[in-house]
Write a structure and sequence with these properties.
Elements: H1 30-40, E1 65-71, E2 76-82, H2 84-90, H3 110-121, E3 125-130, E4 138-148, E5 157-166
Antiparallel strand pairs: 1-2, 1-5, 3-4, 4-5
Amino acid sequence: MRRPVRPPALPLYTPGMLPGQSAPTVRGEVVTRGIAHWAERRRGGRLPSRHDIAPVDLRGLLPQVLLLDVQRVPWDFRFRVIGGNLIYHLDADWTGEWMSQVPETCPPNELFRNCRQVTETAQPYRSRTPFFGWHARVRQADGVILPLAMDGETVDSLLLFVEFLPADGSTP
């Protein structure tokens, strides 16, 4: 049985900042910057692959990243990479686990449905949804699910950028 992991207390956002970069340049922009990074890696309208996404280029965003493997039969998604800030707010590390096996993400969960939609349509999906985690100030999650494909067409991985926000929508 998996045991929840609660890392040491961290601020609401803990990026691996680039030299000379200050937090306000990233806060509130995680999803926008993630989409831009993904779009820059598209090849002639084709989807980028997981290998096109270099962690070194995402240093300021890595704590806010999820990378999922896609399984089509039966439909499921494996947590390959979970950023540290996501682990902090989720109060669990699901790395290596399948969504269908995690009570918080198993079908008919909205995240599961959205991941399947992105996989089937090969189109990004952005949302701002209520979040009811253990951190009192955080009440919204701004996120995007981006398709990745080794062949440029058939989605085999999903890249998610998620930022947790206070209920009023301001940046933490």
